[in-house]
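Thread amino acids onto this structure.
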């Protein structure tokens, strides 16, 4: 299985918006908070001296399921997804370039979803693991402004 990257359509070409790493997960609120904690912990090890903000929010409803929701349903046939939604975690590090954020994206995804770097994270979804998708680019809005909530 290939690495799980997100569509570039989740980001913007607006140069007034910050560069971000976006990590997308299909989980419940508690799972999103746990994933964001893992991201913060990894960042404190990877770039301890950088000022970094990590934001969490629920993806806007676009009237269709996400590939992560489909993956979860396939791995858990007939199981009610409960409170799972499409969450995103946005990492903003103003001092880092797009290339530097891209270098961080893999290790951050691996922290959230062990096996991601080998392309095997999605196969572990039935075991309760949370696979993720990752995108790096300009945010599609200013992270931290409503409706985003910083945790």
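Threaded sequence (151 positions):
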């Amino acid at each position: 299985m290939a690495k799980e990257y997100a569509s570039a359509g989740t980001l913007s070409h607006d140069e007034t918006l910050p560069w971000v790493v976006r990590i997308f997960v299909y989980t419940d609120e508690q799972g999103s908070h746990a994933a964001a904690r893992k991201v913060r912990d990894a960042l404190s090890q990877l770039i301890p001296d950088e000022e970094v903000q990590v934001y969490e929010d629920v993806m806007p409803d676009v009237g269709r399921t996400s590939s992560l929701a489909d993956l979860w349903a396939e791995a858990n046939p007939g199981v009610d997804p409960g409170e799972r939604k499409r969450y995103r975690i946005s990492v903003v590090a103003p001092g880092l370039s797009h290339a530097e954020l891209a270098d961080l994206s893999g290790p951050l995804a691996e922290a959230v979803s062990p096996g991601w770097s080998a392309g095997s994270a999605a196969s572990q979804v039935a075991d309760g693991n949370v696979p993720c998708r990752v995108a790096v680019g300009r945010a599609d809005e200013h992270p931290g402004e409503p409706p985003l909530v910083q945790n």
